[in-house]
Design a protein that fits this description.
The protein has 170 residues and is an alpha+beta fold. It has four helices and six strands; from the N terminus they run H-H-H-H-E-E-E-E-E-E. The strands form two sheets. A three-stranded antiparallel β-sheet has the order 1-4-5. A hairpin with a 2-residue loop joins strand 4 and strand 5. Helix 3 packs antiparallel against helix 4.
Amino acid sequence: MDSSTERSTADTDSAATDQEQPPPDEADPERARLEERWRRAAADLDNLRKRYARDLDRERLAERAKVATAWLPVLDNLDLALAHAGTDPESIVQGVQAIRDQAVHLLEQLGYPRYDETDVPFAPTLHEVVGVVDTPDFPPGMVVEVVRPGYGGNGHQLRPAGVVVSKREE
């Protein structure tokens, strides 16, 4: 057989094979159905991601507005205290203390209670050492003084308390 005969026989065989195989969609309707379901699922997932992103932004804005609204009475009371700044100094001090108590209570309601206890063991998760003193009144590793109160609890902490700790024995 010469090479031209081989070529024409190969062409004929491939043409016959092409004619025998229907297009992919007609060849396997189950495959086409599954591919369509896969495309729909992928589109649904993409839509879900977009909706979640929108919902998350909306929830963040709503939560920020809720917290800011909770702080408005504190600001109102500060404005009142400043408006009466020229009157009795003792009433100003009492007013500022009341506002501070109101702010502490608000933080507690938001899930961040204040802690400023002394004579408790130093806890690295709650305290930040700002000083160490050698004092016979306290056993080693105890909180002697709170320089800056901490806020938070249950693993959610705004900031640790800045404390002075009694010196450990060497």
